[in-house]
Structures are given as structure tokens and as C-alpha cells.
Specification:
By secondary structure, this protein is mainly α. It has helices at 2-9, 12-52. The radius of gyration is 23 Å and the shape is rod-shaped.
Length: 53
């Protein structure tokens, strides 16, 4: 029982979980931004290519 209490009070594992959640949120934001910019950049390059021809 004392071992379970020690595990419950131990906060060392919480840091790893918090970093994992922050990393997941950052990755979602980065991937979403890249997808948004990628599609807009494709449209801009297509418009420029069309106007040159």
C-alpha cells in the first residue's frame, strides 16, 4: 500500500506527459500551417505561371 501511495505522489512522470501533450499540440499547429500555406502557395504559383504565358 505504501508503494502505491509513493507512486501516486510521485510527480516525475507528469512532466513527460505534459511535454508529450505540448509536442502534440505544436505538431498539429505546424502541420495545419504547412497545409494551409502549401495550398495557397500552389495557387499563387499557378496564377503567376498563367499570367506569364
Amino acid at each position: 500500500m505504501e508503494y502505491l501511495r509513493k507512486l501516486w505522489r510521485d510527480e516525475e512522470g507528469q512532466d513527460i506527459a505534459e511535454y508529450a501533450v505540448m509536442l502534440a499540440v505544436i505538431l498539429v499547429i505546424v502541420v495545419g500551417t504547412i497545409r494551409l500555406i502549401g495550398s495557397n502557395a500552389n495557387n499563387v504559383f499557378s496564377n503567376v505561371a498563367s499570367s506569364i504565358q
